[in-house]
Amino acid sequence: MNVLRSLVFYAGYFLAMLVCGVLFLPPAPLLPLRSRYRLLNLYNHFIIAWFRLVCGVRYEIRGRERLPDGPCVLLANHQCEWETVYLQLLKPPVCTVLKKELLSIPIFGWGLRLLHPIALDRSRPARAMKQVLTQGKRRLEEGLSVLIFPEGTRVAPGQRRRYNKSGAVIACRAGMPVVPVAHNAGERWPGRHWVKRPGRLVLEVGEPIDTVGRSPEEVLAETEAWIEARLAEISEVPRPEAAEAARPRESAAR
């Protein structure tokens, strides 16, 4: 049953991408940035609704009322494609930090380019970090929020990876709040398998974390602690202990 649901889902997924590419991409560059977001995000709205309808997923979105009125840095755990789609809708317009290879995908990547993302070359980490800090601060000053996945890559449910502090650095330099986001989307939309799974998908938005007068390390530690605590509550897959998660880092350091 899950295989059939997933086949139907992907049929609609690619058809929607094609239709939106034909109808929305040509006029999008002519629109102001905020109007461009509203137009291109119609695709995101469809994918989120289609996934729920076809794959038997029940959404439980908590804490949207906690989002600040002004721009902020959204820091979320990264398990699969679902959160990259949904978080574009959480506080638009939002600038996403992503790998530049995504911009080469036909139709999908062309649409991404029009939304002013921060596209990184991960083969050049020093340059990528400088790019994130410079462009991220600029986007916040322009009134856009910035979305960063501090784990840097998809992390399967039940696993843990060290958080990168670039998002906290951007927020501290700009004096903007950090908003932590936790979810269990990878349990419904596996990151490395195409078959989707029915059940409850929970996403929770935390209280904004003030950055004024605080160090990035302090802000990141508070963010990570909140996300991990929420994941322990909402995840069906048990979370690893912090000591176990730290062990690979210690081994690598040696």
Kindly describe this structure.
The protein has about 250 residues and is α/β, with parallel strands linked by helices. Helices cover about 45% and strands about 15% of the residues. The protein has eight helices and seven strands. The chain has helices spanning about 1-25, 35-55, 80-90, 110-115, 125-140, 165-175, 215-235, 240-254; strands at about 55-60, 75, 95-100, 120, 145-150, 180-185, 200-205. The chain has a seven-stranded mixed β-sheet, with helices on both faces. Helix 4 (about 110-115) links the parallel strand 3 (about 95-100) and strand 4 (about 120). Helix 6 (about 165-175) crosses helix 7. The chain is globular and about 50 Å long. It starts with a helix and ends with a helix. The model is unreliable at about 250-254 (pLDDT under 50).
Short account of what is shown:
This protein is of the alpha/beta class. Helices cover 47% and strands 14% of the residues.
Furnish the topology, listing elements before pairings.
Layout: H1 2-24, H2 33-55, E1 57-62, E2 73-76, H3 81-90, E3 94-99, H4 108-113, E4 118-120, H5 125-141, E5 145-148, H6 166-174, E6 178-183, E7 199-205, H7 216-234, H8 242-253
Parallel strand pairs: 1-7, 2-5, 2-6, 3-4, 3-5
Antiparallel strand pairs: 6-7
Helix pairs in contact: 1-2, 2-3, 5-6, 6-7
**Main sheet overview:** 7 strands, mixed
Number of separate strands = 7
Please report the number of helical segments: 8
Considering DSSP H and I runs of 4 or more, what fraction of the residues is helical? Answer: 40-55%
Order of helices and strands: HHEEHEHEHEHEEHH
Mean pLDDT: 91
| Terminus-to-terminus distance | 48 Å
CA-atom Rg in angstroms: 18 Å
The strand order across the widest sheet is: 1-7-6-2-5-3-4
Which stretches of 5+ consecutive residues score pLDDT under 50? 249-254
Strand content: 5-15%
Gross geometry: globular
Domain Phospholipid/glycerol acyltransferase: 72-186
Organism: Halomonas koreensis
Keywords: Acyltransferase, Membrane, Transferase, Transmembrane, Transmembrane helix
GO molecular function: acyltransferase activity
